Amino acid sequence: MYTRYRASIIFPLRLTFVIWLVFTFQFYSHIDLGFLGVYPRTVKGLVGILTAPLIHGNTQHILSNTLPLLFLGITLFVFYNRIALWVFINCYFLTSILVWFFGRPFYHIGASGVIYGLAFFLIFFGLFRKDFRSLAISIVVVILYGGLVYGMLPTGSNISWESHAFGAFVGIALAFVYRHMRNLD
Protein backbone atom coordinates (compact mmCIF):
# COMPACT_ATOMS: atom_id res chain seq x y z
CA MET A 1 0.00 0.00 0.00
CA TYR A 2 2.86 2.39 0.87
CA THR A 3 4.42 1.65 -2.52
CA ARG A 4 1.16 2.57 -4.28
CA TYR A 5 1.01 5.94 -2.49
CA ARG A 6 4.64 6.62 -3.22
CA ALA A 7 4.11 5.78 -6.89
CA SER A 8 1.05 8.07 -6.96
CA ILE A 9 3.06 11.17 -6.15
CA ILE A 10 5.75 10.63 -8.79
CA PHE A 11 3.94 12.10 -11.82
CA PRO A 12 2.75 15.32 -10.10
CA LEU A 13 6.17 15.76 -8.48
CA ARG A 14 7.98 15.30 -11.78
CA LEU A 15 5.77 17.83 -13.56
CA THR A 16 6.22 20.32 -10.72
CA PHE A 17 9.98 19.75 -10.86
CA VAL A 18 10.00 20.48 -14.61
CA ILE A 19 7.93 23.63 -14.07
CA TRP A 20 10.40 24.85 -11.44
CA LEU A 21 13.35 23.90 -13.65
CA VAL A 22 11.94 25.98 -16.51
CA PHE A 23 11.23 28.88 -14.16
CA THR A 24 14.73 28.71 -12.67
CA PHE A 25 16.24 28.79 -16.15
CA GLN A 26 14.06 31.76 -17.08
CA PHE A 27 14.89 33.58 -13.83
CA TYR A 28 18.66 33.17 -13.97
CA SER A 29 19.07 33.58 -17.72
CA HIS A 30 16.84 36.69 -17.77
CA ILE A 31 15.05 35.28 -20.81
CA ASP A 32 11.30 35.78 -20.85
CA LEU A 33 9.84 32.48 -22.05
CA GLY A 34 6.35 33.93 -22.37
CA PHE A 35 6.64 33.53 -26.14
CA LEU A 36 6.23 29.79 -25.50
CA GLY A 37 2.69 30.34 -24.27
CA VAL A 38 -0.50 29.70 -26.19
CA TYR A 39 -1.13 32.55 -28.62
CA PRO A 40 -4.63 31.85 -29.97
CA ARG A 41 -5.26 31.08 -33.62
CA THR A 42 -1.65 31.53 -34.74
CA VAL A 43 0.93 29.04 -35.90
CA LYS A 44 3.49 30.42 -33.43
CA GLY A 45 0.98 29.86 -30.63
CA LEU A 46 0.64 26.14 -31.33
CA VAL A 47 3.85 25.37 -29.42
CA GLY A 48 2.10 26.73 -26.33
CA ILE A 49 -0.28 23.76 -26.33
CA LEU A 50 2.72 21.76 -25.15
CA THR A 51 4.72 24.38 -23.26
CA ALA A 52 2.33 26.98 -21.78
CA PRO A 53 1.62 25.11 -18.50
CA LEU A 54 5.38 24.95 -17.89
CA ILE A 55 5.92 28.73 -18.19
CA HIS A 56 5.26 31.16 -15.33
CA GLY A 57 5.63 34.93 -15.35
CA ASN A 58 7.03 35.54 -11.87
CA THR A 59 7.64 34.03 -8.46
CA GLN A 60 4.13 34.75 -7.19
CA HIS A 61 2.66 33.06 -10.27
CA ILE A 62 4.64 29.84 -9.86
CA LEU A 63 4.15 29.76 -6.09
CA SER A 64 0.38 30.14 -6.45
CA ASN A 65 0.32 27.19 -8.88
CA THR A 66 2.73 24.81 -7.13
CA LEU A 67 0.77 23.70 -4.07
CA PRO A 68 -2.60 23.27 -5.83
CA LEU A 69 -0.95 21.34 -8.67
CA LEU A 70 0.75 19.02 -6.21
CA PHE A 71 -2.27 18.56 -3.94
CA LEU A 72 -4.82 18.03 -6.72
CA GLY A 73 -2.46 15.89 -8.81
CA ILE A 74 -1.54 13.64 -5.90
CA THR A 75 -5.19 13.36 -4.85
CA LEU A 76 -6.12 12.33 -8.38
CA PHE A 77 -3.38 9.70 -8.62
CA VAL A 78 -3.94 8.29 -5.12
CA PHE A 79 -7.70 7.88 -5.33
CA TYR A 80 -8.31 7.41 -9.07
CA ASN A 81 -5.06 5.84 -10.23
CA ARG A 82 -6.64 3.83 -13.06
CA ILE A 83 -7.80 6.94 -14.92
CA ALA A 84 -5.48 9.56 -13.38
CA LEU A 85 -2.95 9.77 -16.19
CA TRP A 86 -5.66 10.19 -18.85
CA VAL A 87 -7.45 12.83 -16.80
CA PHE A 88 -4.19 14.69 -16.21
CA ILE A 89 -3.13 14.56 -19.86
CA ASN A 90 -6.54 15.71 -21.05
CA CYS A 91 -6.61 18.58 -18.56
CA TYR A 92 -3.15 19.59 -19.76
CA PHE A 93 -3.71 19.42 -23.51
CA LEU A 94 -7.45 19.95 -24.08
CA THR A 95 -7.45 23.10 -21.97
CA SER A 96 -4.59 24.57 -24.01
CA ILE A 97 -6.21 23.52 -27.29
CA LEU A 98 -9.47 25.25 -26.31
CA VAL A 99 -7.54 28.38 -25.32
CA TRP A 100 -5.76 28.29 -28.69
CA PHE A 101 -9.12 28.19 -30.50
CA PHE A 102 -11.12 30.60 -28.35
CA GLY A 103 -8.79 32.70 -26.17
CA ARG A 104 -8.00 36.39 -26.41
CA PRO A 105 -5.01 37.30 -28.59
CA PHE A 106 -2.14 37.37 -26.10
CA TYR A 107 0.25 34.80 -24.64
CA HIS A 108 -1.51 32.51 -22.16
CA ILE A 109 0.96 30.90 -19.73
CA GLY A 110 0.90 28.94 -16.47
CA ALA A 111 -0.45 25.72 -15.02
CA SER A 112 -3.69 27.20 -13.72
CA GLY A 113 -5.74 25.72 -16.57
CA VAL A 114 -4.51 22.28 -15.54
CA ILE A 115 -5.27 23.11 -11.89
CA TYR A 116 -8.82 24.16 -12.75
CA GLY A 117 -9.27 20.99 -14.78
CA LEU A 118 -8.11 18.79 -11.90
CA ALA A 119 -10.13 20.67 -9.28
CA PHE A 120 -13.35 20.60 -11.27
CA PHE A 121 -12.82 16.97 -12.18
CA LEU A 122 -12.43 16.02 -8.52
CA ILE A 123 -15.45 18.10 -7.49
CA PHE A 124 -17.82 16.93 -10.22
CA PHE A 125 -16.64 13.33 -10.24
CA GLY A 126 -17.97 12.98 -6.71
CA LEU A 127 -21.21 14.70 -7.63
CA PHE A 128 -21.75 12.48 -10.67
CA ARG A 129 -20.77 9.21 -8.94
CA LYS A 130 -22.48 9.87 -5.60
CA ASP A 131 -20.38 7.31 -3.72
CA PHE A 132 -19.07 8.19 -0.26
CA ARG A 133 -15.35 8.37 -1.08
CA SER A 134 -15.80 10.48 -4.21
CA LEU A 135 -18.22 12.83 -2.44
CA ALA A 136 -15.80 13.20 0.49
CA ILE A 137 -13.01 14.12 -1.94
CA SER A 138 -15.36 16.60 -3.65
CA ILE A 139 -16.17 18.25 -0.33
CA VAL A 140 -12.49 18.58 0.63
CA VAL A 141 -11.64 20.10 -2.76
CA VAL A 142 -14.58 22.54 -2.53
CA ILE A 143 -13.50 23.59 0.96
CA LEU A 144 -9.89 24.12 -0.12
CA TYR A 145 -10.41 25.44 -3.64
CA GLY A 146 -14.04 26.57 -3.91
CA GLY A 147 -12.84 30.11 -4.54
CA LEU A 148 -11.50 29.03 -7.93
CA VAL A 149 -14.92 29.83 -9.35
CA TYR A 150 -14.08 33.54 -9.18
CA GLY A 151 -10.97 33.01 -11.30
CA MET A 152 -13.14 32.14 -14.28
CA LEU A 153 -14.41 35.70 -14.44
CA PRO A 154 -12.58 38.22 -16.62
CA THR A 155 -10.94 40.37 -13.94
CA GLY A 156 -7.45 41.31 -15.08
CA SER A 157 -6.19 41.88 -18.58
CA ASN A 158 -3.04 39.85 -17.87
CA ILE A 159 -4.84 36.88 -16.28
CA SER A 160 -5.96 34.09 -18.56
CA TRP A 161 -9.47 33.58 -17.28
CA GLU A 162 -9.98 31.56 -20.47
CA SER A 163 -7.49 28.94 -19.22
CA HIS A 164 -9.40 28.80 -15.95
CA ALA A 165 -12.80 28.51 -17.61
CA PHE A 166 -11.74 25.96 -20.23
CA GLY A 167 -9.85 23.97 -17.58
CA ALA A 168 -13.05 23.84 -15.50
CA PHE A 169 -15.05 22.80 -18.56
CA VAL A 170 -12.57 20.03 -19.40
CA GLY A 171 -12.57 18.80 -15.79
CA ILE A 172 -16.38 18.66 -15.67
CA ALA A 173 -16.55 16.90 -19.05
CA LEU A 174 -13.98 14.30 -17.96
CA ALA A 175 -15.86 13.71 -14.71
CA PHE A 176 -18.99 13.05 -16.74
CA VAL A 177 -17.20 10.73 -19.17
CA TYR A 178 -15.55 8.65 -16.44
CA ARG A 179 -18.46 8.69 -13.94
CA HIS A 180 -19.33 4.99 -14.47
CA MET A 181 -15.77 3.62 -14.24
CA ARG A 182 -15.21 0.95 -11.59
CA ASN A 183 -12.09 -0.16 -9.72
CA LEU A 184 -10.47 3.25 -9.96
CA ASP A 185 -7.56 2.79 -7.59
UniProtKB/TrEMBL annotation:
Organism domain of life: Bacteria
Keywords, comma-separated and alphabetical: Hydrolase, Membrane, Protease, Transmembrane, Transmembrane helix
Membrane-topology annotation of the record: Multi-pass membrane protein
Gene Ontology molecular function: any one: peptidase activity
Species of origin: Reichenbachiella carrageenanivorans
Descriptive protein name: Rhomboid family intramembrane serine protease
Compartment list: Membrane
Domain Peptidase S54 rhomboid: 47-179
Spans traversing the lipid bilayer: 12-31, 62-80, 85-103, 109-128, 135-153, 159-178
Pfam assignment, any one: Rhomboid
Primary localization: membrane
GO biological process per UniProt: proteolysis
